Amino acid sequence: MSAPEPLLLVVDGNSLLHRAYHAAATGELRDGDGRAVWALKGLVTHVAHVAARLRPDAVLVGFDCPVSSMRADDYAGYKAHRAAKPADLREQLAAAPELLHAAGLPVFVPVGYEADDVLASCAAKAADSGWRTVLVTSDRDAFALLDASTSVLRIRNGGRDAAVLVRAATLPGVCGVEAWQYRDFAALRGDPSDNLPGVPGFGSATAAGLLAAFGTVDAAWAALDGGRAAEVSAAVGVRASERLAEPAARELVARNRRLMRMRTDLAVPDPEGIRLPLEFSRMRRALAGRGILLGPSLWALTGGVPPDEVAEAPEWVRVAVRPPRSRRPSPIPGQLTLF
After folding, report:
1. In the record, which residues are listed under signal peptide (predicted)?
2. In this structure, are strands 159-166 and 150-156 parallel, antiparallel, or unpaired?
3. Within this chain, do residues 67 and 92 fall inside the same structural domain, yes or no?
């Protein structure tokens, strides 16, 4: 039996750091200088926990560009409704890429784009390289990337143990559509979190019903244009059918498709070049410099063994499994220079 393809873990750093900030599972931890670090600790703990669960061969953390947004340049309303972030959240978001880089974790911050684009580009690069990918995020946007080699570990309320691994084959049970239909599903429904309204009358259930009947929204429009409005009404109701036939609906879906489309061509690293393990002492030292004290939980990232196995092993085994030194990753061409 041949060995399975190697596994790349790609983490949406913004998504998980926001979740850790609001969960404050470790309390409002601060370093010796009084700076907030609880969300930073939560993010690293998330990554370590998921690595222990999935045993990846490589890990990369992506972040949104902090200084520009191509999508906001395209549509001024994009995320414009969001309240200003608290100062201690902004500080931790700003510190996260540099801290993780110092700890040896590969980090990618694309100029003008978002962590979603990093996830999409990594999944495409991994597939081309014969790797599998698991995308770790709390956002549903990544469902559009599901395919035979890409899965999504969605972090939900309830903490890390409540995370659900979603595959292309299981997506219909999650939202009622096939993976190849998800982009149309999201464009019809809209995304309130990004201030992208959908077609009036089309929530999740109505959008799924339309796609179950026609496959794509373009096929539904072809039916409306071809005098088969009764078929559309039978699938979603008369009122929703009328709304879908309006010119404004086509404009909304076109805009949402454009803004929701994720880049797959960013210059992310080849997964072979960022293979684990990371250097344990380097991670401990960088994290401790910000008052984050982690040790045994880092085993899956640093080439160790589970803590219970270490505790039962004799001293010579514990020394033998000490992880080797790994090379320091360098910023990648096209990556925002933060380091």
Report:
1. none
2. antiparallel
3. yes
Closest CA to 137 of 9, 16, 48: 16
The model's pTM is 0.89
- The per-residue pLDDT for range 122-166, each reduced to its tens digit, is 999 999 999 999 999 999 999 999 999 999 999 987 666 678 999
Domain hosting residue 204, numbered range: 180-260
**Count of domains forming the chain:** 2
One domain for residues 225 and 77 = no
Q: How far apart are the first and last CA of the chain?
A: 43
Which among 187, 333, 176 is positioned nearest to 251, based on CA atoms? 187
Q: In the chain, how long is the greatest CA-to-CA distance?
A: 78
Q: What is the CATH number of the domain that holds 72?
A: 3.40.50.1010
Residues with Cβ < 8 Å from 203, sequence gap 6 or more? 189
Q: How far apart are CA 262 and CA 264, in angstroms?
A: 6
Does any domain span residue 70? Answer: yes
Spell out the residues 6+ positions from residue 33 whose beta carbon is closer than 8 angstroms to its own.
none
CB–CB of 264/332 below 8 Å?
A: no
Beta strand 7-12 with 132-137 is parallel
Residue 130 contacts by C-beta under 8 Å, 6 or more apart in sequence?
Answer: 5, 6
Q: Is the pLDDT of residue 337 over 70?
A: no
**Relative orientation angle of helices 217-225 and 204-214, to the nearest 10 degrees:** 70
Looking up tokens 């972090």, which residue turns up? 155
Q: Where are the beta strands (DSSP E) in the chain?
A: 7-12, 58-62, 107-108, 132-137, 150-156, 159-166, 190-191, 196-197
Report the C-alpha gap between 240 and 42 in whole angstroms. 43
Same domain, 255 and 284: no
Residues 197 and 299 in one domain: no
Residue 328 lies in a domain: no
Do 68 and 214 belong together in one domain?
A: no
Any idea how long the chain is? 339
Q: Are residues 51 and 126 in the same domain?
A: yes
What does the pLDDT look like over 264-280, one tens digit per residue?
Answer: 999 999 999 999 999 99
